[in-house]
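Researcher: Quick one. six chains, 786 residues in total.
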Amino acid sequence: MATLGLIEYEDASPEVRAVYDDIMATRGTDWINNFWKALAHDPATLRRTWESIKEIMSAGALDPLTKEMVYLAVSVTNQCPYCIASHTAAARKAGMTGAMFAELMAVVGMANETNRLVSGYQVEIDERFRT
Amino acid sequence: MATLGLIEYEDASPEVRAVYDDIMATRGTDWINNFWKALAHDPATLRRTWESIKEIMSAGALDPLTKEMVYLAVSVTNQCPYCIASHTAAARKAGMTGAMFAELMAVVGMANETNRLVSGYQVEIDERFRT
Amino acid sequence: MATLGLIEYEDASPEVRAVYDDIMATRGTDWINNFWKALAHDPATLRRTWESIKEIMSAGALDPLTKEMVYLAVSVTNQCPYCIASHTAAARKAGMTGAMFAELMAVVGMANETNRLVSGYQVEIDERFRT
Amino acid sequence: MATLGLIEYEDASPEVRAVYDDIMATRGTDWINNFWKALAHDPATLRRTWESIKEIMSAGALDPLTKEMVYLAVSVTNQCPYCIASHTAAARKAGMTGAMFAELMAVVGMANETNRLVSGYQVEIDERFRT
Amino acid sequence: MATLGLIEYEDASPEVRAVYDDIMATRGTDWINNFWKALAHDPATLRRTWESIKEIMSAGALDPLTKEMVYLAVSVTNQCPYCIASHTAAARKAGMTGAMFAELMAVVGMANETNRLVSGYQVEIDERFRT
Amino acid sequence: MATLGLIEYEDASPEVRAVYDDIMATRGTDWINNFWKALAHDPATLRRTWESIKEIMSAGALDPLTKEMVYLAVSVTNQCPYCIASHTAAARKAGMTGAMFAELMAVVGMANETNRLVSGYQVEIDERFRT
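Model:
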């Protein structure tokens, strides 16, 4: 489904095709996943979102694998099924092993637990943690 | 404040002191932050939570710095002020630079944005992402 | 499915039928969606929820279309698939075009991103914003 | 603060005072907490919210203490500081001891952890759990 | 599916089987639900999670039924489909009736509503609620 | 505070000043709020975030006031204090009256409530809502 449907490459405008081409070239793949085909109904958002992701996810002070795992950690915390499926695939492609995935999930689970313990016990921030 | 108050080392039972001692020894510090002092009202939860964190956050397939940054990413997604303050401090201690922090925040922000775009557009999981 | 099953009109008590009748009359439709059929197992909650929605969603200082789009924006932020599907339909019926939907999603995505940037950077409220 | 300010009893309209009076009579107290004083700017929402809470939180198949603890559990999961403070007070008044609070927090923390493990591992619902 | 697949009893290592055996013995059942079969790829997390749940969910200051309903309330707030399905089943097994389920949902819904009203109106914590 | 501190105009690099200047010109104000001063530590994110917000929040199929109210609705759902304070101010400046604010909050509260009722009752999407 998808609210407005999916726009395939052959039905896309030149503006949308340019983004699709850049996605495939940047990722070294020959296909486009559904997220972009859905966003293509709004070319401005398609372009802006892709440009932002391309800039943010490229290597910098953090390597691409770490970034993909952080993306997955956020998606798991938000419990977004599509995002979890797509970013698990992306993280694996970037080098995440099964053991790394398992440790990542353990950290995500633990953080979600202690976030609530802290809130529930109404713990005040230690003076030393104030920057 | 803190719902049940904070238990200082000098007022703690031997069971609680043993956990405090292990926290300080493991972290190489001479103080205990408020989270543990609040949890100390429930020694079973104090012990279980500390043992779990100690096991989960130690080096394994992922290094401690990556784990601390993931912990921070989850805490930011959940918007837990105490957790953000304490895990920013922990991640810095583990080696997170200002540049790494900035890139981490950019990824966390982006993931939170696309998680909602995906949900809002009701995008179906691509067959290739199904494991 | 639905935890307690769905109660169809022909199987409903007079109390439940009265709510179903009012829903259809208010909406100018001849059917009841699953949400109400599931809630009908708890007639008090069915009635209270319907009365509240009817009061809140009617025209006032805000028009019904704006209210439906806000309802959708919240449902997307919470990532509730049923709510997104049903309120997308409701908003369209109230006049939301594809272009309006696309801009709505862009705002929802952006707000979810900056909410986390603000939290992650631990930004304090400006004096001018305090009311 | 509070966005629109707080409306004290002496400044309230007869409609608002009637709700305030019912809150105090129902709770057996002689004061109104800030939540209601803020909502009083919208008498319709004030009345509807109070009537709903009064109906929902009274004894039924679940006793008032259990209901207050569930309210607190939700507020902790959502990390709402005001709600945590006010419903901790309400639950204590209804009989929650320190030991009950501690066990409640342990369950809330654990549930928040496993909710993410389940999502992260993309676990499918067992046939036996489908109703 | 499940990211890493499910590990059945007959394919499990002795370490994993020991946990499976304890789960079945503790629960008085002869089957293992998918959550544990997915976690079994990480025996350390499997063991730690089970030991924690066993400790937390047993009778104490709160009875097991209350704990199961709180677990369900959190899962509903987080909107985790698997968790809702499995903990609805567990709560029913522990004695939750349809009427109790309905009241539980009413409280969860109400708390999620007022949590946002409080935040939206920027209500400050009453002095009396500060502990 | 703010994790990395705030960068004032007089201490900003030409790149950051250019963004500050554009923010003030676009908004017709002579000051910069803390969010941007915190983000300024990461000029790439500062620029990208500002360009995105400027593009998204300008008049289009939806008017600026509606967009600001949607931004506020999301911020309230996420319970982000800074975002609620700043976007309440922005929405008021764009024309939101007290009555509009009150109705907006009522819709946000209601949506958060029914999102959980739907999830808790495990309601399936009606065939008619599938697009």
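DSSP finds six helices and no strands in chain A.
Researcher: Thanks, that's what I needed.
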